[in-house]
Amino acid sequence: MNHERPGPDEVDRRRKHARLVSLLEARGAGTIVLRSAAAVGWYLDGSRVHVSLAADPIVAVVVSPGDAWLVATSNEVDRLQAEELPDIRVRTVPWHTPIDAVLPSGDGVLQEADVAAELRAARASLLPAELARFRSLGRETTSAVEALVDELDPARTERAVAADLAGRLVAAGIDPLVLLVAGEGRLAHRHPLPTEGRLGSRAMVVACGRRDGLIVNLTRWFDDGGTPAEPFATDMQRIRAVEHAYLDATVPGASLADILRTGSAAYAEQGFDADEWTRHHQGGAAGYAGRDPRAMPEATDVVQPWQAFAWNPTAPGVKVEDTVVITPDGVEVLTTSAPSTHPTPSTVGG
Questions:
Q1: In a 10 Å sphere around its CB, with 0-12 CB exposed, 13-18 middle and 19+ buried, how is residue 94 labelled?
Q2: How far is CA 291 from CA 49, 64, 148, 312, in A?
Q3: Distances (CA, A) of 284 to 29, 83, 123, 247, 289
């Protein structure tokens, strides 16, 4: 695998800062405090500011029109400054001092909860170095998953497959945030955590991998030909048609609610139960969160150029999932092992 990918980019970071300044101006505020993995990872170009994969960042970032600074504890700051952080001012506090105690608050200070939708919009449109990192992540995660699937044997257990995949991802610097494996007897489950059960002749493998703060999502299938090809092959064609309905509706300016209505209507059009979409989430915007946000019937977020998405249509025994980005030329699939031939966002503008 090729681990070469762009690091922190000063031009990108200036544009991110400008987006936050516009948000502050629109809200009549002077400061915003970033605490979540999605917001901090985005602003710091994917710096690894976590210890536990399941926990919040171990730092906070404070941004104002003319400044940005970071708070870290004394037991973490040396590694962060030596290996992770871009050029940003750091305030250090003792490890036993809660970071919240030194953060600004009150009038004129925005917390993430105050502007959740605006922050999602600020990070939605990928910048050039971000997209390059995302493409690299998509290629390497897909290569790891597909190489594993090509080597599978019906006798392997789900847990052995998950362990193998986790090792391949970690070796590429990718955090395995979600690993799901369903053998032949468990394909009815939409989120199949691995068990000691054996794969059998058909299996589903799902991976959500994070690197540089960005997260790709993909699903792949193993089939050794030992089970009847039908109705599986036909059902997969039909569920892919549902995915195409979602992708065709994912155009700049469309709301997530409208896309969900279009995509969910495709289930009945393809001969599935009209309520099939209610039995599992359908995916949504992607980027610095697994879904940023997940598409809901009331979602008001709108698609932006150069925004990433991961739709997730499923029906009994079938599921498709890839991560894509919406470009001026249409949909670019990031979860592919092929090098991209698509354009890159302009460095001009917001």
A1: exposed
A2: 20, 27, 25, 11
A3: 30, 32, 15, 11, 10
- Cβ neighbours, 10 Å, residue 275: 10
Among residues 280, 281, 330, 287, the alpha carbon closest in space to that of 307 is found at: 287
* Matching residue, tokens 């995302």: 134
**Structure-block tokens of residue 244:** 């195409």
- In 3D space, the residue among 69, 42, 74 whose CA is nearest the CA of residue 58 turns out to be 74
Give me the helices (H) in the chain, please: 10-27, 37-43, 77-79, 116-124, 128-151, 158-171, 232-249, 256-269
> Chain-wide mean pLDDT for the chain?
95
Beta strands 214-223 and 283-285, pairing class: unpaired
Is the CB of residue 9 less than 8 Å from the CB of residue 45? yes
Residue 107 confidence class, pLDDT cut points 50, 70, 90: very high
What are the structural domains, with CATH classification, of the chain?
10-124 (3.40.350.10), 128-333 (3.90.230.10)
**Look-up: residue for tokens 């919406």?**
326
220: pLDDT strictly greater than 70: yes
Using alpha carbons only, give the angle 14, 307, 118 rounded to the nearest 5 degrees.
65
